[in-house]
């Protein structure tokens, strides 16, 4: 059903296009060029294509293959942007060695995008018509703030969404969320020779970090999620003081908290505020503020929803046995689709090296993914009468 030559050709070109996220690097090319290439592929397939550009150069593309009516709609989602390429020997080569295609974004997630497009091409080439709409979305900025998926969601309300993030052809039913929090301890800048006048914000931060470590250990003792394990936190950044001979007037700690389904913004914030309140109660000179910088919800879907059951059956047909149901520690755009009311699930190709110096995707798994997506679309959207 799937044309391997077509898959490899478009995947190679996708990897060769620099789509580094400009929010992560001043040299980032953005998504304009790769979006134009994807738009051309979708136009060649006769899809109704729309572009979304919430910020200059940050382009997302959605193609709609209209069904005959009466079936469920399905959207296949992949992101166009990649992380940075520092330290990579061949970031945009698209070189193939031993069945692996190399380059930034090959697995995360241009292989997935190639599979989505190839699935539609295969359905058309075999004369299949669907009852429900099938949509392909290539979105911007997933690696930073997800402005791409947020710009398309108001315009589409699909019954189901498959986010094709890398999963080694396993079916992901859940992933963690995250919160970025910032704690600032306040001191009083003064010459280092005057301990009677200076207040050391760095020392105050040290006391806070000791309590934060205890909270981190407590998270490990909580009941685990069946697919995701425990929530976690770490002190990601730390900045304080200006010179050796002065007391630090301020110290800033950036904290990342990875959250589980059921954990709320209010709960996470209260955990940190409890520490700050305790430290102030034991030392009135301790002063600190807390600010939430960014929050993304965790995601979870029931294995009983029709889309998950349909996808599981498709994997059994293509792979010889049903793909296992797993959870992911990383965050994805699936959380936004699920929050908008679509039944959402994740599956993606086999590979390695996400965000590292050598990234690759297994080409045969991309072809298998394309067939899984095509079979899922037939069963989920229904055949046209």
Strand order of the largest sheet: 1-2-6-3-7-15
Strand content: 15-25%
| Largest sheet: number of strands, sense, barrel closure | 6 strands, mixed
Mean pLDDT: 97
Name of the CATH homologous superfamily of the largest domain: Zn peptidases
Can you characterise this structure?
A hairpin with a 7-residue loop joins β16 (351-352) and β17 (360-362). This protein is 34% helix and 25% strand. α1 (4-16) runs antiparallel to α3 (106-125), α3 crosses α9 and α7 (306-319) crosses α9. The chain is α+β, with helices and mostly antiparallel strands and 385 residues long. The protein is elongated. The strands form 4 sheets. A 6-stranded mixed β-sheet has the order 1-2-6-3-7-15. A 4-stranded antiparallel β-sheet has the order 4-5-17-16. The chain has 2 domains: 4-175 and 299-381, Aminopeptidase (3-Layer(aba) Sandwich), CATH 3.40.630.10; 177-296, Alpha-Beta Plaits (2-Layer Sandwich).
Q: What does the secondary structure layout of this molecule look like, with pairings?
A:
Layout: H1 4-16, H2 32-44, E1 48-55, E2 58-65, E3 74-79, E4 96-97, E5 100-102, H3 106-125, E6 134-139, H4 147-152, E7 160-163, E8 171-175, E9 177-186, H5 201-221, E10 232-240, E11 250-259, H6 265-282, E12 287-296, E13 299-300, H7 306-319, E14 325-328, H8 334-339, E15 343-346, E16 351-352, E17 360-362, H9 363-381
Parallel strand pairs: 3-6, 3-7, 7-15, 8-14
Antiparallel strand pairs: 1-2, 2-6, 4-5, 5-17, 8-13, 9-11, 9-12, 10-11, 16-17
Helix pairs in contact: 1-3, 3-9, 5-6, 7-9
Keywords:
17 strands; 9 helices; four-stranded antiparallel β-sheet; about 25% strand; about 375 residues; alpha+beta; Alpha-Beta Plaits; six-stranded mixed β-sheet; single chain; Aminopeptidase; 2 domains
């Amino acid at each position: 059903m799937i044309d391997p030559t077509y898959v490899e050709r478009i995947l190679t070109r996708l990897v060769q296009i620099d789509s580094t996220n400009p929010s992560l690097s001043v040299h980032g090319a953005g998504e304009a060029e790769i979006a134009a290439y994807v738009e051309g592929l979708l136009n060649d397939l006769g899809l109704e294509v729309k572009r979304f550009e919430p910020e200059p150069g940050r382009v997302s593309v959605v193609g709609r293959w209209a069904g005959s009516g009466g079936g469920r709609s399905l959207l296949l989602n992949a992101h166009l942007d990649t992380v940075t390429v520092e330290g990579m020997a061949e970031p945009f080569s698209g070189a193939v060695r031993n069945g692996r295609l190399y380059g930034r974004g090959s697995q995360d997630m241009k292989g997935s995008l190639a599979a989505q497009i190839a699935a539609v091409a295969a359905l058309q080439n075999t004369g299949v018509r669907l009852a429900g709409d099938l949509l392909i979305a290539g979105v911007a900025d997933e690696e930073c703030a997800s402005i791409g998926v947020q710009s398309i969601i108001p315009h589409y309300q699909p019954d189901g969404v498959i986010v094709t993030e890398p999963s080694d052809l396993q079916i992901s039913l859940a992933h963690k969320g995250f919160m970025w929090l910032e704690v600032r301890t306040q001191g009083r800048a003064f010459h280092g020779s005057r301990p009677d006048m200076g207040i050391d914000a760095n020392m105050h931060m040290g006391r806070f970090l000791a309590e934060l470590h205890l909270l981190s250990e407590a998270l490990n003792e909580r009941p685990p999620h069946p697919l995701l394990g425990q929530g976690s936190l770490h002190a990601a950044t730390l900045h304080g003081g200006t010179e050796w001979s002065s007391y630090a007037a301020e110290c800033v700690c950036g904290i990342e908290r990875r959250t589980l389904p059921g954990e709320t913004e209010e709960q996470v914030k209260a955990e940190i505020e409890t520490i700050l309140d305790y430290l102030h109660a034991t030392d009135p000179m301790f002063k600190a503020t807390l600010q939430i910088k960014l929050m993304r919800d965790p995601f979870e879907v029931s294995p009983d929803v029709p889309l998950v059951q349909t996808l599981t059956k498709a994997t059994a047909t293509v792979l010889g046995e049903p793909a296992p149901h797993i959870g992911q520690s990383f965050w994805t755009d699936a959380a936004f689709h699920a929050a908008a009311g679509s039944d959402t699930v994740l599956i993606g190709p086999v590979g390695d090296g996400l965000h590292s110096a050598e990234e690759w995707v297994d080409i045969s798994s991309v072809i298998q993914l394309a067939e899984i997506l095509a079979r899922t679309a037939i069963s989920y959207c229904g055949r046209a009468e």
